[in-house]
Amino acid sequence: MILTDILQNIKVEKVIGDISIKISGIQFDSRKVELGNLFVATRGTTVDGHSFIQAAIEKGAKAILCEKIPYEPAKNMTYIKVKDSSETLGKAASAWFGYPSSELTLVGITGTNGKTTIATLLYKLFRELGYNVGLLSTVQNYINSEIIEATHTTPDALELNRLLRKMADAGCEYAFMEVSSHAVEQRRIAGLEFDGAVFSNLTRDHIDYHETFEKYLKAKKRFFDELDKNAFALTNVDDKNGLVMLQNSKASKHIYSTRGMADFKTKILEDSFDGMLLEMNGKEIHVPFIGNFNAYNLTAVFGTAMLLEQDELEVLRIISSLKSVSGRFETIKAPGGFTAIVDYAHTPDALNNVISTINEILQGNGRLITVVGCGGNRDKGKRPMMAREAVDGSWKAILTSDNPRDEEPMAILNDMLEGLDSEQKTKSLTIVDRREAIKTACAIAQKDDVVLVAGKGHENYQIIRGVKHHFDDKEEVLLAVSK
């Protein structure tokens, strides 16, 4: 592609050299640069791509896109100076792959909890409606029925546009994607044309990256602020930050609720471990999902389908047959008469939602045993909060390793224990080994009890002292209950 074609929608501050040259590809990782590439020097959280401009040139880069041109530019090299190279990378990637998002009806889902469930259920719903559909999610990416492993909630700009191009070429009419706060902040979604955006909720998460809740909120809001006037914005009005998302958005504004008046409203009529009876916009349906948080997720799915002009009765029929997403409130019936639940809840609010739902269904006719930990190299401030939520809502809480990464597992557990007073500590056990913690929970569970294994959900690994090991909560639960 000619460099001028890549730059046509990009605001350029300065150019040195020839921009009519042919480019063989785009890279922002100097190690992947090949002959004739455009190298985009982005400023990351730990590494500044400007430090690798010379390395990219030595690997064969033909042009450099950067925020700061080197003091001594290389001869016969083209330099393009821009204000924000991360923003520009997204736009350049979109141009390189032929603006794939413009060929799809692209809907982004953001929020702290529920993103994966909403995006995945929308993908399943629209597949059942007969459409070719793409999905970009934390668990797995899909192009129709083709599975592509996911490495990030939202891929980098190049990978994102490459996948969207594959979706468009495969005839996909719709694409649903999770939009993380990191992706907004790092401008991975720059240059994409969204037809709609959905907001689930906002609670404490990723403070290790964003530093404050306000910055985290601002990142989510920016996604809605940048929507086109022809797009729709659908938000959970029951969340105190729901309407904040709509404040400066040019998109058409819509709300959903399980409490009050809204464009899309759901009421829980019955709730059990086998599912819920819901009244959704005045029509009753039974769904194999559990809990108020899932009522919100399903209402967001329903509302999105309506805003995409699908048939209401057909949508409700399909929603009633949809199955739970991997690692999201997955229930396992144990031979001993108790129920085990595997869930991804890894924030204080998500854990509270899951525990509250279980206790509402139990109504005192059984005990709750919760197994939970906290990830290493992440927000330390939520560790004592997670411990308190687990202990306060459970008959017994077993604090254990989650995904310790480079931290000492016991150090993480000590941070969690700091959130408990002496009385709360009597309701808890500390077992560093997660496998042993799950075994113990299942061993002490009696008929009608519930064992909740929270925090990892679909993840099938643990990183301990920098080494990645296979570990799957669902596998471990199945093994424990079989014994």
* CATH topology type of the largest domain: UDP-N-acetylmuramoyl-L-alanine:D-glutamate ligase
- Tell me what the CATH architecture of the largest domain is: 3-Layer(aba) Sandwich
Uncertain segments:
206-210
CATH superfamily of the largest domain: Mur-like, catalytic domain
For the record, the CATH class of the largest domain is Alpha Beta
Pairing-aware structural class of the strands and helices?
alpha/beta
Trace the largest sheet across and list its strands. Answer: 9-8-7-10-6-11-12-13-14-15-16
How is this structure best described in words?
The protein has 483 residues and is α/β, with parallel strands linked by helices. The chain has 3 domains: 3-96, MurE/MurF, N-terminal domain (Udp-n-acetylmuramoylalanyl-d-glutamate--2,6- Diaminopimelate Ligase, Chain: A, domain 1), CATH 3.40.1390; 100-319, Mur-like, catalytic domain (UDP-N-acetylmuramoyl-L-alanine:D-glutamate ligase, 3-Layer(aba) Sandwich); 330-482, Mur ligase, C-terminal domain (Protein-Tyrosine Phosphatase, Chain A). Helices cover 32% and strands 23% of the residues. The protein has 16 helices and 24 strands. It has helices spanning 3-6, 53-58, 85-96, 115-128, 157-169, 181-185, 207-210, 213-225, 292-307, 312-319, 348-362, 383-393, 409-417, 422-425, 434-444, 473-482; strands spanning 14-16, 25-27, 37-40, 63-66, 78-81, 105-110, 133-136, 140-143, 146-149, 174-178, 196-199, 232-236, 252-257, 264-272, 275-280, 283-287, 330-333, 339-343, 368-372, 396-399, 428-430, 450-454, 461-464, 467-470. Strands 9-8-7-10-6-11-12-13-14-15-16 form an 11-stranded mixed beta sheet, sandwiched between helices. Strand 8 and strand 9 (146-149) form a beta hairpin. The longest helix has 16 residues, at 292-307. The protein is globular and about 75 Å long. It starts with a helix and ends with a helix.
